[in-house]
Amino acid sequence: MTIIERPSGVTLLAVLHVLQAVILILGGLGLLVARRMVRVMLHFPRFGGFLALIGVILIVVALLDFVLAWGLWTGKGWAWILTLIFAVLGIVFSLVSMIRGGLVAILILALDIIIVFYLFTPRVKAFFGETKAPVSPPTPPLTVILQTPPTASTGNRFCSNCGAPVTSVEQFCAHCGTKLV
How many Å apart are CA 114 and CA 9, to the nearest integer? Predict the structure, then answer.
């Protein structure tokens, strides 16, 4: 089995998913703390329950983000598929946001398009086991060109320095400039 080195872009995607997971966990915990404050200070128990639900959802999504980052880091095929699905969904949501006038959506759209194209590069697909590893073409063997010495019967002449063919009227080799004998 051939071990393929992890592409740098895949490493970057995994690190970005970890950062996103950390931010989501902090946001989820912040909403859980805010829920307590809303219930105690403002006496809105239903709103506090809504904040708690959103906070728990953010923490669950963060845990899934950690799992996805691990899958990307280790080259799991399912992580390639999920990243592709999330990037395509990001493209769709960005297009909808652009219709509503979101300027940030253009940046997100561009990044998601780049991610989709990147995931389909041969090296990345091979890392995730989606195709065979790209094989560099074999180096051709060194060949020695054997030239027969000029003979009177063929009338062919060759430069004594570089071996380039020369005509009978040339006094200098057109290839290397050596004076012909």
Answer: 11
Task: For the chain, give every domain's residue range.
Answer: 8-127, 153-181
Render pLDDT for 55-67 as a digit per residue (tens, 0 to 9): 999 999 999 999 9
- What burial class does residue 28 get, using C-beta atoms within 10 Å of its C-beta: 0-12 exposed, 13-18 middle, 19+ buried? buried
Burial 93-122 (b: 16+ CB within 10 A, else e): ebeebeeeeeeebeebbeebeebeebbeee
Q: DSSP labels for the chain?
A: -PPPPPPHHHHHHHHHHHHHHHHHHHHHHHHHHHHHHIIIII--HHHHHHHHHHHHHHHHHHHHHHHHHHHHHHT-HHHHHHHHHHHHHHHHHHHHHHHHT-SHHHHHHHHHHHHHHHHTSHHHHHHTTSSPPP-PPPPPPP-----PPP-TTT--EE-TTT--EE-TT-SB-TTT-PBP-
Determine if the pTM surpasses 0.85: no
Tokens standing for residue 96: 């909808």
